[in-house]
Design a protein that fits this description.
heterotrimer, A: mainly alpha, B: alpha+beta, Arc Repressor Mutant, subunit A, 3-stranded antiparallel β-sheet
Chain lengths: 194, 96, 200
């Protein structure tokens, strides 16, 4: 870019072009979604097998998610570092999912009062909530649809208060984390590895 | 004709930097360089000028053992940018 | 997601874009806290009433008090519509916050009015826990988006109360967590917001 006297129109155009450039900045490898999607899916299927007495397991399979959580946090930390700019949207989305995890944690404490399978329903509702808001903020249509589908799954889950509810959760994991993770990954590769 | 336009902002590269920074929370030097398609030398001079005017905040830190500069717009910078856009708008309307 | 800036972009739209960016960067969010106070006190009063009906009188239909939320909801719709007309620009924060609360309203509606009666409502015995877990989220997010600390703490307080409610063995007393959450998440931040708004 060279220095030269700008006219009004040129300034105007320049501002617009730069805002678009900045808004379009996108650095999302989708790794996080893929890790979560697969691990939650596996844990839910295991939980279903255990709770429907087809298999025995030394502890509740959902506890397997604890190490996954730490691995994910580490991956996320490394990805953050590679980002060259942080947009306002990035920031809000981060908070949406932080809020989601805190809510889910609080909901899981319902185990103390033996709330039972209803906890999974609540987790499903929260997932729908977070996914829908993410979609609305990023205008990534997939997440909006996925939030709505999740809401439907959550409603269905009210009527499935048995071990099979874990299967609903497994499906949710695939559509909320794995599929968007793969879509983002494909887009990311196209953008940065050409 | 451009008497009332802020001279600090009314320069191609500085205006580009400010427009980028107003759209993000913060951005690294390399990001600004890529998007404005400028040379590192020229860009640092302009960033220095914006910093001296108090329009942006420059944070220097280390990332994986390399020095890394991050820029962020300040409240004063936002105000100046807003004023600039307003006068620009007036100018464009007058012309029509 | 990424539009092409060069084509079909009128000067009007360009200007709007620039303005929206400036507003977003400015963090300007004018909220008088009225809605927070209205809902905070309403839910506070309803839950205390419900507790009294349940605990003191042993009334079977103690949840009838919640019908009071319906007229308030209608009033809110009217109020928001009026406010929209006065407001010149919808900021980034405004739109995110409205998405958050609309989603929340849908979830609560599903939980309380629709699915309960359909499923014979066994889960109502855990309703306090469930509500508080979900309720923390919109409060926390609103606090983050408008950068208002009391709301962030209010959201966290909801989750803490949610965990706390699991240690209370008597169902009746669990209900008292709801008014406590209202104080922490709506009423106190509501007054602080109002004070901030007036001082601006």
């Amino acid at each position: 870019m060279e220095e030269k006297q700008l006219t009004g129109e040129e300034s105007f155009k320049l501002i617009n072009r730069m805002i678009h450039e900045a808004k379009g900045y996108f650095y999302e490898s989708g790794l996080g979604g893929i890790i979560y999607g697969i691990s939650i899916f596996i844990c839910c299927v295991l939980s279903w097998l255990v709770e429907s007495n087809t298999m025995s397991f030394p502890f509740h399979p959902l506890f397997l998610l604890t190490p996954v959580f730490f691995i994910q946090a580490w991956v996320q930390y490394r990805e953050e570092k590679k980002k060259k700019a942080k947009t306002f949207t990035d920031e809000v989305i981060d908070y949406v999912w932080t809020g989601y995890f805190l809510s889910v944690f609080a909901a899981l404490c319902g185990n103390f009062i033996n709330a039972g399978y209803i906890i999974i329903t609540i987790v499903l509702l929260l997932t729908a909530f977070a996914s829908f808001i993410t979609g609305m903020i990023t205008k990534f249509r997939y997440h909006i649809i996925c939030g709505l589908v999740c809401m439907l799954i959550a409603i269905v889950s009210f009527f499935v208060q048995s071990a099979s509810i874990y299967l609903l959760m497994a499906v949710t994991a695939l559509i909320v984390w794995l599929v968007p993770g793969l879509i983002l990954r494909a887009r990311f590769k196209k953008l940065y590895h050409n | 004709m451009f008497k009332d336009l802020d001279p600090i902002l009314h320069s191609q590269l500085r205006l580009a930097v400010m427009s980028l920074l107003i759209s993000v929370k913060q951005a690294e030097f390399t990001f600004l360089k890529e998007k404005t398609n400028s040379t590192a030398g020229n860009l640092s001079v302009q960033i220095q000028k914006l910093k001296e005017a108090g329009y942006i905040e420059v944070i220097k830190e280390f990332k994986d053992n390399y020095p890394n500069t991050t820029c962020k717009i300040t409240a004063k910078g936002i105000k100046a940018f807003e004023e600039y856009v307003k006068s620009l708008q007036q100018y464009l309307q007058v012309k029509k | 997601m990424i539009e092409n800036p060069e084509n079909n972009f009128s000067p009007q739209q360009s200007l709007q874009l620039i303005e929206s960016m400036i507003n977003r960067a400015k963090d300007k969010y004018a909220e008088d806290g009225f809605m927070y106070l209205l809902w905070g006190w309403l839910v506070f009063a309803c839950s205390i009433m419900q507790f009294v009906l349940l605990h003191v009188f042993g009334y079977t239909y103690h949840y009838i008090v919640w019908l009071a939320t319906i007229p308030v909801f209608i009033y809110q719709a009217y109020y928001v519509k009026k406010k929209r007309r006065r407001q010149k620009a919808v900021t980034y924060a405004d739109s995110i916050i409205s998405y958050v609360w609309i989603t929340f309203a849908i979830v609560i509606f599903l939980l309380c009015f629709l699915v309960g009666p359909l499923t014979s409502g066994e889960y109502y015995t855990h309703i306090v826990h469930i509500l508080l877990a979900i309720y923390g989220m919109p409060v926390f997010l609103t606090g983050v988006v408008i950068k208002f600390k009391p709301l962030i703490y209010g959201g966290i307080a909801c989750w803490v109360l949610c965990i706390l409610s699991t240690f209370i063995k008597v169902y009746d007393y669990q209900f008292l967590c709801v008014p406590a959450a209202m104080l922490a998440a709506w009423i106190i931040p509501g007054y602080l917001l109002r004070a901030k708004y007036k001082s601006q």
